[in-house]
Amino acid sequence: QVQLVESGGGLVQPGGSLGLSCAASGSSFTINAMGWYRQAPGKQRELVATLANGGITNYKDSVKGRFTISRDFAKNTVYLQMNTLKPDDTAVYFCYARARTRYENDYWGQGTQVTVSS
Length: 118
Prior knowledge:
The chain is mainly beta. It contains no helices and 11 strands. It has strands spanning 2-8, 10-12, 18-26, 30-39, 46-52, 57-59, 67-72, 77-82, 91-100, 104-108, 112-116.
Protein backbone atom coordinates (compact mmCIF):
# COMPACT_ATOMS: atom_id res chain seq x y z
CA GLN A 1 0.00 0.00 0.00
CA VAL A 2 0.97 3.59 -0.62
CA GLN A 3 -0.11 6.41 1.65
CA LEU A 4 -0.36 10.01 0.46
CA VAL A 5 -0.24 12.87 2.94
CA GLU A 6 -1.08 16.36 1.73
CA SER A 7 -0.27 19.72 3.25
CA GLY A 8 -1.01 23.29 2.32
CA GLY A 9 -4.25 24.78 1.18
CA GLY A 10 -6.41 27.27 3.00
CA LEU A 11 -8.11 30.57 2.31
CA VAL A 12 -6.65 33.12 -0.11
CA GLN A 13 -7.93 36.23 -1.82
CA PRO A 14 -8.41 36.33 -5.58
CA GLY A 15 -5.09 36.94 -7.29
CA GLY A 16 -3.18 35.37 -4.44
CA SER A 17 -0.96 32.30 -4.30
CA LEU A 18 -0.90 29.01 -2.45
CA GLY A 19 1.29 25.95 -2.47
CA LEU A 20 0.34 22.34 -1.93
CA SER A 21 2.61 19.40 -1.22
CA CYS A 22 2.04 15.68 -1.00
CA ALA A 23 4.40 13.00 0.22
CA ALA A 24 4.05 9.32 -0.61
CA SER A 25 5.10 6.64 1.83
CA GLY A 26 4.87 2.89 2.14
CA SER A 27 7.04 -0.12 1.51
CA SER A 28 8.42 -1.50 -1.71
CA PHE A 29 6.70 0.75 -4.18
CA THR A 30 7.63 2.54 -7.37
CA ILE A 31 5.83 5.68 -8.41
CA ASN A 32 5.12 6.13 -12.10
CA ALA A 33 3.21 9.41 -11.89
CA MET A 34 1.95 11.90 -9.36
CA GLY A 35 -0.42 14.78 -9.61
CA TRP A 36 -3.40 16.72 -8.39
CA TYR A 37 -7.12 16.55 -8.96
CA ARG A 38 -9.84 18.75 -7.52
CA GLN A 39 -13.53 18.55 -6.78
CA ALA A 40 -15.81 21.53 -6.30
CA PRO A 41 -19.21 21.21 -4.60
CA GLY A 42 -21.72 19.58 -6.90
CA LYS A 43 -19.11 18.83 -9.56
CA GLN A 44 -17.11 15.81 -10.62
CA ARG A 45 -13.49 15.36 -9.68
CA GLU A 46 -11.27 16.77 -12.41
CA LEU A 47 -7.61 16.67 -13.33
CA VAL A 48 -5.57 19.72 -12.39
CA ALA A 49 -2.03 18.63 -13.23
CA THR A 50 0.02 15.47 -13.45
CA LEU A 51 3.71 14.79 -13.83
CA ALA A 52 4.97 11.43 -15.03
CA ASN A 53 8.42 9.98 -14.43
CA GLY A 54 9.59 10.98 -17.88
CA GLY A 55 8.87 14.60 -17.08
CA ILE A 56 5.71 14.76 -19.13
CA THR A 57 3.22 17.20 -17.63
CA ASN A 58 -0.48 17.52 -18.23
CA TYR A 59 -2.46 20.55 -17.07
CA LYS A 60 -6.11 21.47 -17.10
CA ASP A 61 -6.47 24.22 -19.67
CA SER A 62 -7.82 26.77 -17.23
CA VAL A 63 -4.78 26.52 -14.94
CA LYS A 64 -2.06 26.65 -17.60
CA GLY A 65 0.28 29.55 -16.97
CA ARG A 66 -0.96 29.93 -13.39
CA PHE A 67 -0.22 26.57 -11.76
CA THR A 68 3.08 24.70 -11.75
CA ILE A 69 3.53 21.07 -10.79
CA SER A 70 6.89 19.71 -9.69
CA ARG A 71 8.28 16.61 -8.03
CA ASP A 72 11.10 15.68 -5.73
CA PHE A 73 11.73 12.17 -6.97
CA ALA A 74 14.09 11.30 -4.11
CA LYS A 75 11.45 12.23 -1.54
CA ASN A 76 8.46 10.85 -3.47
CA THR A 77 6.84 14.25 -3.09
CA VAL A 78 4.77 16.29 -5.49
CA TYR A 79 4.12 20.02 -5.28
CA LEU A 80 1.57 22.33 -6.81
CA GLN A 81 2.30 26.05 -6.88
CA MET A 82 -0.88 27.98 -7.57
CA ASN A 83 -0.63 31.62 -8.61
CA THR A 84 -3.20 34.19 -9.67
CA LEU A 85 -5.91 32.18 -8.00
CA LYS A 86 -9.52 32.70 -8.99
CA PRO A 87 -12.78 31.95 -7.17
CA ASP A 88 -13.38 29.15 -9.69
CA ASP A 89 -10.29 27.41 -8.29
CA THR A 90 -12.13 26.84 -5.02
CA ALA A 91 -12.32 23.09 -4.43
CA VAL A 92 -10.99 20.20 -2.43
CA TYR A 93 -7.64 19.27 -3.95
CA PHE A 94 -6.63 15.62 -3.95
CA CYS A 95 -3.13 14.27 -4.36
CA TYR A 96 -2.84 11.37 -6.77
CA ALA A 97 -0.20 8.75 -7.43
CA ARG A 98 0.00 5.87 -9.84
CA ALA A 99 2.30 3.42 -8.17
CA ARG A 100 3.36 -0.17 -8.45
CA THR A 101 3.67 -2.43 -5.45
CA ARG A 102 2.88 -5.93 -6.62
CA TYR A 103 0.51 -4.41 -9.16
CA GLU A 104 0.01 -0.92 -10.46
CA ASN A 105 -2.78 1.00 -8.75
CA ASP A 106 -4.03 4.53 -8.30
CA TYR A 107 -3.78 6.06 -4.84
CA TRP A 108 -5.41 9.17 -3.40
CA GLY A 109 -4.78 11.56 -0.56
CA GLN A 110 -7.45 12.65 1.87
CA GLY A 111 -7.93 16.02 0.20
CA THR A 112 -7.20 19.57 1.27
CA GLN A 113 -9.53 22.54 0.93
CA VAL A 114 -8.55 25.54 -1.17
CA THR A 115 -10.89 28.51 -0.94
CA VAL A 116 -10.42 31.61 -3.07
CA SER A 117 -12.58 34.41 -1.78
CA SER A 118 -12.43 38.06 -0.82
